[in-house]
């Protein structure tokens, strides 16, 4: 009988290659000790491979660790000396070479050291899971299954779990729960079939795009434009993604796909690696790691942007990359709703536009292939359509899964056109279309809304020809579902107030990029006023959103237009209005919890700083970046960073030189954060910078952020939350600290490390942070500090170089160092 499942307190990773080491790094990000083991090489130190991997992790770009300190949790070792360490491990992950005999030999040795009941999983994607432990002890087989991570594990959310017939359901559930809550994974069950779900469907899609490119005479640039953002796929498209992951890796996956397709009699065994990629492998054109692949760098332009040449797959020569001009893409570009855009692209006339001619076979063949991967038997990887859609969204970063895309296109219209052209149609699609429906309806879809279910929708199960609730783990919620079940209390173009239930309301930001313009400022101001209906009707609030980023900061376009029209009074009112909003967040009689994620920049940080608490997602890129556009924080950001400075010391009393030495180091750190426009690379780093407090818990799984924020808000209410009062006697650091910071700025300018305008912006930041030209320790009010910020902000708005920076950032998305 299987032993009781352990709590996961210590993990071992066997294999310190790229995948194994990065799995170890992400487990360390979750705060767990990890043992990382590999073989002993001749004439090398015993732990050479594990130590080398650890060194590479510290230097990895993008960063493998949330903070460099997480590396201390990894203990390097080797298979010869350190297998005894496995006796203390609750979970052991095998990630060695894709060779059955190597894996079996290692696991035989592991079996001698693992404790009974510990869980042992494999990261393999090319070998049958059960065959690896055939003949091993019963307890080991009961605690053995597949855990297929995607690279890089920190950033790729998908984890496919592949149980065997003997796997203990309790052991599988233990790892699924741990990976969901502690590692932030979207856990998708898969059957033990070749390439599992995501790689099976994703590799077909990539190789089919290449096949169609050759068949239709398209270029690499055109395929990348077609298979990127217009479909809700990553903007890298097909070939730029190939360069990122490595052409050799792409070739390996493709070769494996072709071999497994032949073995399993896959209906698309014609989708194979083309000869021009074989030539690239021979020439060592392997992508970014060799500086040459489908693309290669060709210097930089005047704005510092990379110039690239692209491969002509027919001549195998390179030429300057150009932006393809495809009429169908230009016509679809203004369509913001992805489903509507996909429908237009798919059903455009293929006779008049080559984009439409590509999309019709590309998407319909994807629909058929994905539908054929769903079966009641173990011959196919997925039991339901939900698993395929979830795997593609989490594993390949598609915004919609193939079945959601087909719903957008219209299953009936799409299928009837396919039948008219004698294209193959999956029997699962036929089962969907045979589902009873009213004659006035457009026909059944794979998904349909159902506000009575926790997930808010049902899916069609072709194996039973019935609709079933889309399963959702407890603790996972979304604003979209809440709006279906509870409704929207009120909204404008930039924000909505959504009833979260249990007395909690969510303020959802939903402007473009969640740029903070007058619509959002007005909405939050009216909602959080002490006399508002919302404050009377709800016990707490959560400010968050469901776009890719929490907020990119203030609406720079609105600001620049006002500057160009010299509407200085209006700009002063805008800044004052923003300050008033952040003050209402801080002093609201109900607790306000901000749940930031993704990019949280400028004004987004200021909203967060003023909240009663923050519940961030682990992947948080947070920074007061106003200096990059020639400004300083004007919505209370400088004030709040000064208050954190004051909190860090026990006294502001000056020493013999007139400096508050107890707080000056903290003040200097916060000044550099603002002047350098420092952005965190994770929520953990945002905490070390000072944007988050030690009491602010971090959510690892993005899907759980909303619920975690709600629970935090409820806990504040239950604890008898009382709003703070405005501080009326903040001891200002004053002139001496200001002089010291200005001297540091002067030194950097003299050394030509910064421009003259950088120096001007930095001096204004120092002015606001020090409380202006006052005697050290002078008591000032929060409003006084806000007035200093507004003075600095308005002064910098009048600078030509600031206006140039704003215009450049709006045009390029990058800062200008003028």
Secondary structure layout:
Blueprint: E1 11-14, H1 18-29, E2 34-38, H2 48-59, E3 74-78, E4 91-94, H3 100-111, E5 119-122, H4 129-132, H5 138-142, E6 144-149, E7 158-163, H6 169-181, E8 186-189, H7 198-216, H8 220-226, H9 239-245, H10 247-263, H11 275-282, E9 295-300, E10 306-311, E11 318-320, H12 327-332, H13 338-346, H14 354-371, H15 385-395, H16 402-409, H17 411-420, H18 427-433, E12 447-449, E13 457-461, E14 466-469, H19 479-485, E15 488-491, E16 495-501, E17 504-509, H20 518-528, H21 533-537, E18 540-545, H22 556-564, H23 568-587, E19 592-594, E20 598-601, H24 603-609, E21 613-614, E22 620-623, H25 637-648, H26 661-675, H27 683-689, H28 705-718, E23 730-731, H29 734-750, H30 756-769, E24 779-780, H31 782-797, H32 800-812
Parallel strand pairs: 1-2, 1-4, 2-3, 4-5, 5-6, 7-8, 17-18, 18-19, 19-21, 20-22
Antiparallel strand pairs: 6-7, 9-10, 10-11, 12-13, 13-14, 15-16, 16-17, 23-24
Helix pairs in contact: 1-2, 7-14, 7-15, 9-10, 13-16, 14-16, 20-23, 22-32, 23-31, 25-26, 26-30, 29-30, 30-31
Features:
3 domains, eight-stranded mixed sheet, 818 residues, N-(1-d-carboxylethyl)-l-norvaline Dehydrogenase, domain 2, alpha/beta, 32 helices, 43% helix, Rossmann fold, 2-enoyl-CoA Hydratase, Chain A, domain 1, globular, six-stranded mixed sheet, 24 strands, single chain
Largest sheet: 8 strands, mixed
Count of strand segments: 24
Name of the CATH architecture of the largest domain: Alpha-Beta Complex
Average per-residue pLDDT, rounded, comes to 93
Spatial order of the strands in the main sheet? 3-2-1-4-5-6-7-8
How many domains make up the coordinates?
A: 3
How far apart lie the N and C ends? 70 Å
What shape does the CA trace take? Answer: globular
The CATH class label of the largest domain is Alpha Beta
Q: What fold name goes in the CATH topology slot of the largest domain? A: 2-enoyl-CoA Hydratase, Chain A, domain 1
Gyration radius, to the nearest Å? 29 Å
Instruction: Note the total helix count.
Output: 32
Main structural class: alpha/beta
Low-pLDDT sequence parts? 650-661
Full CATH superfamily name of the largest domain: 2-enoyl-CoA Hydratase, Chain A, domain 1
What is the share of helical residues? 40-55%
Beta-sheet strand percentage? 5-15%
Catalytic activity: a (3S)-3-hydroxyacyl-CoA + NAD(+) = a 3-oxoacyl-CoA + NADH + H(+)
Protein name: 3-hydroxyacyl-CoA dehydrogenase NAD-binding protein
Domain 3-hydroxyacyl-CoA dehydrogenase C-terminal: 196-296, 380-416
Keywords: NAD, Oxidoreductase
């Amino acid at each position: 009988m299987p032993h009781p499942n352990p709590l996961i307190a210590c993990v071992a990773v066997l294999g310190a290659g790229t995948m194994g080491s990065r799995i170890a790094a992400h487990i360390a990000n979750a705060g767990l000790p990890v043992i990382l083991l590999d073989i002993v090489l001749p004439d090398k130190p015993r732990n050479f491979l594990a130590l080398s991997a650890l060194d590479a992790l510290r230097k990895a770009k993008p960063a493998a660790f949330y903070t460099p300190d997480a590396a201390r949790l990894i203990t390097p070792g080797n298979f010869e000396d350190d297998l005894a360490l496995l006796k203390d491990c609750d979970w052991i992950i095998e990630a060695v070479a894709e060779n059955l005999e190597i894996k079996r030999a290692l696991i035989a040795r592991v079996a001698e050291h693992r404790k009974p009941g510990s869980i042992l999983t494999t990261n393999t994607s090319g070998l049958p899971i059960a065959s690896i432990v055939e003949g091993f002890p019963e307890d080991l087989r009961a605690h053995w299954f597949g855990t297929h991570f995607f690279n890089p594990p920190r950033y790729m959310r998908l984890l496919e779990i592949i149980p065997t017939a003997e796997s203990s359901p309790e052991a599988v559930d233990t790892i699924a729960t741990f990976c969901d809550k502690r590692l932030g994974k979207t856990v998708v069950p898969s059957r033990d079939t070749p390439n599992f779900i995501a790689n099976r469907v994703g590799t077909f899609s990539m190789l089919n795009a290449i096949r169609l490119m050759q068949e239709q005479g398209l270029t690499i640039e055109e395929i990348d434009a077609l298979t990127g953002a217009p479909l809700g796929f990553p903007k890298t498209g097909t070939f730029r993604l190939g360069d990122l992951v490595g052409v050799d890796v792409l070739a390996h996956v493709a070769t494996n796909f072709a071999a497994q397709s032949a073995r399993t009699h896959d209906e698309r065994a014609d989708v194979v690696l083309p000869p021009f990629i074989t030539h690239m492998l021979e020439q060592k054109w392997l992508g970014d790691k060799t500086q040459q692949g489908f693309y290669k760098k060709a210097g930089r332009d005047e704005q510092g942007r990379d110039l690239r040449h692209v491969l002509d797959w027919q001549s195998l020569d390179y030429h300057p990359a150009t932006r393809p001009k495809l009429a169908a893409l230009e016509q679809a570009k203004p369509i913001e709703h992805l489903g509507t855009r996909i429908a237009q692209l798919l059903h455009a006339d293929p006779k008049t536009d080559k984009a439409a001619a590509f999309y019709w076979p590309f998407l319909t063949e994807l629909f058929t292939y994905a539908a054929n991967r769903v079966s009641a038997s173990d011959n196919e990887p997925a039991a339901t359509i939900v698993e395929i859609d979830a795997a593609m969204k989490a594993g390949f970063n598609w915004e919609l899964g193939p079945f959601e895309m087909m719903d957008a296109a219209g299953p009936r219209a799409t299928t009837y056109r396919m039948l008219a052209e004698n294209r193959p149609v999956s029997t699962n699609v036929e089962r969907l279309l045979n589902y009873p429906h009213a004659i006035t309806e457009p026909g059944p879809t794979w998904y349909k809304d159902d506000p009575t279910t926790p997930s808010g929708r049902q899916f069609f199960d072709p194996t039973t020809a019935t609709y079933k609730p889309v399963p959702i783990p407890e603790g996972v919620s979304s604003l979209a579902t809440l709006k279906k079940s509870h409704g929207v209390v009120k909204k404008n173009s930039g924000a909505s107030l959504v009833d979260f239930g249990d007395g909690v309301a969510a303020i959802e930001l939903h402007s473009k990029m969640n740029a903070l313009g007058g619509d959002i400022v007005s909405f939050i101001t009216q909602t959080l006023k002490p006399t508002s209906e919302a404050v009377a009707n709800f016990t707490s609030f959560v400010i968050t959103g469901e776009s890719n980023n929490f907020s990119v900061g203030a609406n720079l376009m609105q600001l620049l237009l006002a500057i160009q029209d010299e509407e200085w009074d209006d700009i002063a009112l805008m800044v004052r209005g923003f300050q008033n909003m952040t003050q209402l967040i801080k002093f609201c009689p109900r607790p306000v919890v901000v749940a930031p994620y993704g990019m949280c920049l400028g004004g987004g940080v200021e909203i967060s700083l003023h909240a009663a608490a923050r519940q961030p997602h682990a992947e948080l890129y947070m920074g007061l970046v106003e200096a990059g556009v020639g400004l300083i924080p004007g919505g209370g950001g400088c004030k709040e960073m000064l208050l954190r400075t004051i909190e860090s010391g026990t006294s502001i009393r000056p020493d013999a030189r007139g400096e508050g030495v107890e707080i000056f180091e903290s003040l200097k750190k916060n000044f550099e954060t603002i002047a350098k426009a420092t952005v965190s690379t994770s929520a953990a780093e945002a905490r070390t910078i000072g944007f988050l407090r030690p009491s602010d818990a971090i959510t690892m799984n993005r899907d759980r952020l909303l619920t975690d924020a709600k629970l935090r808000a409820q806990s504040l209410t239950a604890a008898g939350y009382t709003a703070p009062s405005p501080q009326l006697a903040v001891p200002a650091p004053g002139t001496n600290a200001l002089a010291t910071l200005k001297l540091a700025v002067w030194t950097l300018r003299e050394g030509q490390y910064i421009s003259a305008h950088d120096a001007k912006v930095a001096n204004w930041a120092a002015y606001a942070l020090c409380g202006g030209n006052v005697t050290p320790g002078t008591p000032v009010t929060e409003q006084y500090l806000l007035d200093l910020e507004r003075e600095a902000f308005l002064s910098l708005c009048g600078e030509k170089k600031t206006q140039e920076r704003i215009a450049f950032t709006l045009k390029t998305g990058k800062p200008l160092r003028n």
